[in-house]
Design a protein that fits this description.
By secondary structure, the protein is of the alpha+beta class. It has a four-stranded mixed beta sheet, with helices on both faces. A hairpin with a 4-residue loop joins strand 3 and strand 4. Helix 4 packs antiparallel against helix 5.
Length: about 140
């Protein structure tokens, strides 16, 4: 991807993860612009939507490895970059996106994100989204 995503879009998160749901709830409260829609990765058409935007088939393992941003402009990113884009779009402030683009900050952010993602079950959470909203999570993954 040559240009970072911008503008409205969807942030996909793991609806079976309590920590991910807590983060989702925080982002929902921060969403001053209303330009961030939040959907669980377990939604029925998530793989198809992201695969179409990427131009390749996304595996289930790739899908569940991180959060994903799908901009209304069709641009896609994942992990720490998706978090930075979602925070910038939700707040209307460019700082999260700019901070990610500082030389060295992106790779460091991705490494930290990867560690957190691999250990997310150890962090405090809340009732997972798919338990609160089972109709939004028809897939079993």
């Amino acid at each position: 991807m040559t240009a970072p995503p911008s503008g409205p879009g969807v942030l996909f998160f793991d609806g079976h993860c309590g920590m991910c749901t807590r983060s989702r709830d925080l982002l929902e409260r921060m969403n001053r612009t209303g330009d961030v829609r939040l959907e669980p990765l377990q939604a029925a058409d998530t793989v198809e939507r992201l695969s179409a935007a990427l131009g390749r088939q996304l595996s289930q393992d790739e899908l569940m490895a991180s959060i994903w941003w799908l901009g209304d402009d069709g641009r896609v990113c994942s992990a720490a970059e998706a978090a930075a884009v979602a925070a910038a779009v939700a707040t209307g402030l460019p700082a999260p996106r700019w901070a990610y683009r500082i030389p060295g900050a992106g790779p460091l952010s991705e490494a930290a994100y990867g560690w957190v993602a691999r250990n997310r079950g150890r962090f405090p959470g809340t009732t997972p989204y798919c338990e609160r909203e089972p109709s939004a999570c028809p897939s079993t993954d």
